[in-house]
């Protein structure tokens, strides 16, 4: 059976504000999907809501993993079921070494029934695997001894996210602007890395502004999100077009969604100062 | 892997929370009447067969205690001084081997893992049960080098001149109400003398156990580290949980002579019915180093501010303090550094965690006396608050009487962020594991200063404190 992550008619709000207005998206394992769209169109919200961020309220629609509704699951359960998100801005956890954090995470995800306090993956076995993955990603061994994202450069953070993905071997991975803040070479390396760690076996949703990250991960589908809805789906050529020509043509083709986009942006302005 | 100091490793972690909470049935050989009076103080002194000077010291201290008001700052001290047993002798004599210790008491320390730790990595052990040290050991080679490690009662008998010269000189009974109380009714504690140039490689450990209800434990410790010598002293403490209050009020005096080093580590894990009101102070002389590592996890109320007085040029004082306050607990902990001589250096790092309505306060003094030119002091306080019901306060007192000095103070308060939790949960950690990991990261800079065995224990205790903290 092909494994599937299926999003149907998803409406999401944060506080007073409606952000997603009926997203439909089906990702099969083994497929690469690109999601592109202007700022404020709901890309990161979609990523967060798939992962189970507690601040997002689903007002309508479903998210299903292999036919099972996962909306009631918290992030822990989703991670253990094989869902992964590479964060646009990963959090620093001072004092916690990458290796210790990864050993906990890897144990939990590979053994979803694990209770707290039960044994972790044996140290020797874990270290060997971590070393292999780090070599593959051309990361210095010292990295494992540093505190999680603490004082990392932008590039280091993103590579750390890819390393986590490599260790956790998710079924479905959402990469939220993994290329943001990186220079050309770093994006290239990230793109290669995703392919090398077996991205092909996962179902991947790559959220990006550029086509560079897609270089080694050619999308089977490219989706355009506008005003909180996916308005167009095409192949790899759509991604190139969007990168070179921007979103004006898309807006012209979808005037209603463009109007909603405008409205959302206006509300944003009103809410500025209110801390949004 | 090293094993825990106070309990065997348990893969499941289940049931450990109560490992300290057991009561030992003992017959005890003598118990002073409940309450406090000159007569009871005299009886304790007589019972111990003390010289007259010590009895006078006690009786004078009692007068000072009675004349001093309760401190009006810190926490709420809800003790009825007449409702406490001030002296409880559990056994006729101190054991030189564990076989000499009454079996039920030996079993207590077995459960706490002391004999096992002794075999593995300690240079000497004192085990105090209620008011008396019931077991004492010191590695033979250290004794041959002239190291003295004994209980303070024995020291009064066998090293009377040395004790008389120093006891109550660093912390006089007049210092504060509880120092006066300890000076009146003290019993047990450690006396350590490390001769010139002797460096003790492994720690000396004391373990304090309160077993009886409404008990007061008042150990008195005096440590003298002679020129160029080194020692690491570690104390642990536990008690079973009772509904009525008990009192632990110790006094610890330390002299660190020229070029010597002393490290004093405390892992305090009293039950939550115990008032822990302790005075600790060290005098550090030329080019010496005094370090306090003070971990406070248990007790209802702790008021404790280990101090270093830097008496001669080049002396250094370092204090690392960790406090964890959970439901019904108030940790009023901190440190004092006093620069009395030029070119002295101090550092205070304090980390506190409050959860489930617990309250932790940092209270610290940094004083630079007139003439202490070129002195440097650095104070960093970090507080982590786990939920809205919990509280953290900082009370830094800075008194600088000299111009040519460098004094830095930094304080930070943070809350566990929702985004941090979400990040860790998205990697398969439960919310509880995630909080626990954030907390262990928070104290990591301190825990890594501990020897491995104690670091393991400290982490384990933090995990126990964290259990059930979420939801």
Strand and helix map with partners:
The complex is a heterodimer of chains A (276) and B (471).
Chain A: E1 4-14, E2 17-28, E3 32-36, H1 43-51, E4 57-65, E5 68-69, H2 75-80, E6 83-86, E7 93-97, H3 98-110, H4 123-136, E8 147-148, H5 154-168, E9 172-176, H6 184-196, E10 203-207, E11 221-226, E12 229-234, H7 236-245, H8 248-253, H9 255-271
Parallel strand pairs in A: 3-10, 3-11, 6-9, 9-10
Antiparallel strand pairs in A: 1-2, 1-4, 4-5, 7-8, 11-12
Chain B: E1 30-31, H1 38-47, H2 52-67, E2 88-89, H3 103-111, H4 114-121, E3 124-129, E4 132-138, H5 140-144, E5 148-151, H6 152-158, H7 160-166, H8 177-185, E6 190-194, E7 204-209, E8 216-217, E9 220-225, E10 230-238, E11 246-248, E12 251-256, E13 261-268, E14 274-284, E15 289-296, E16 301-304, E17 307-310, E18 316-325, E19 330-339, E20 345-354, E21 359-368, E22 376-385, E23 391-400, E24 406-415, H9 418-425, H10 431-447, H11 452-466
Parallel strand pairs in B: 3-7, 6-9, 7-10, 8-11, 9-12, 10-13, 11-14, 12-14, 13-15, 14-16, 14-17, 15-18, 16-19, 17-19, 18-20, 19-21, 20-22, 21-23, 22-24
Antiparallel strand pairs in B: 1-2, 3-4, 5-6
Helix pairs in contact in B: 1-2, 2-8, 6-7, 9-10, 10-11
Question: Can you tell me about this structure?
Answer:
- The complex is a heterodimer of chains A (276) and B (471).
- Chain A is 37% helix and 26% strand.
- Chain A has 276 residues and is of the alpha/beta class.
- Chain A has one domain (4-271): 3-Layer(aba) Sandwich (Rossmann fold).
- In chain A, strands 6-9-10-3-11-12 form a 6-stranded mixed β-sheet, with helices on both faces.
- In chain A, a hairpin with a 2-residue loop joins strand 1 (4-14) and strand 2 (17-28).
- Chain B is of the alpha/beta class.
- Chain B has one domain (16-466).
- Chain B has 11 helices and 24 strands.
- Chain B has helices spanning 38-47, 52-67, 103-111, 114-121, 140-144, 152-158, 160-166, 177-185, 418-425, 431-447, 452-466; strands at residues 30-31, 88-89, 124-129, 132-138, 148-151, 190-194, 204-209, 216-217, 220-225, 230-238, 246-248, 251-256, 261-268, 274-284, 289-296, 301-304, 307-310, 316-325, 330-339, 345-354, 359-368, 376-385, 391-400, 406-415.
- In chain B, strands 5, 6, 8, 9, 11, 12, 14, 16, 17, 19, 21 and 23 form a 12-stranded mixed β-sheet that branches. In chain B, strands 4-3-7-10-13-15-18-20-22-24 form a 10-stranded mixed β-sheet. A two-stranded antiparallel ribbon of chain B has the order 1-2.
- In chain B, helix 10 runs antiparallel to helix 11 (452-466).
- The longest helix of chain B has 17 residues, at 431-447.
- The A-B interface holds A 51-55, 74-76, 78-80, 84-85, 87, 90-91, 93-96, 101, 104-105, 108-109, 112, 116-119, 147-148, 164, 168 and B 11-14, 417-420, 422-433, 437-438, 440-445.
